[in-house]
Amino acid sequence: MKIDLTPLLSGEVDEIAIDYPLTIEGSFGGVAFPDPVRVLGTVTDKAGYTALKAKLHFRYDTVCDRCLRPVSVSGALEFSRTVALSGSLQNEDRDEYLIAENRMLDPDGVFTEEILLNLPMKHLCREDCKGLCQKCGKDLNEGPCTCAAKEIDPRLAGLEKLLKNKG
Ligand SMILES: [Zn+2]
Ligand SMILES: [Zn+2]
Question: Residue 133 CA: which ligand is closest?
Answer without folding.
Answer: 2
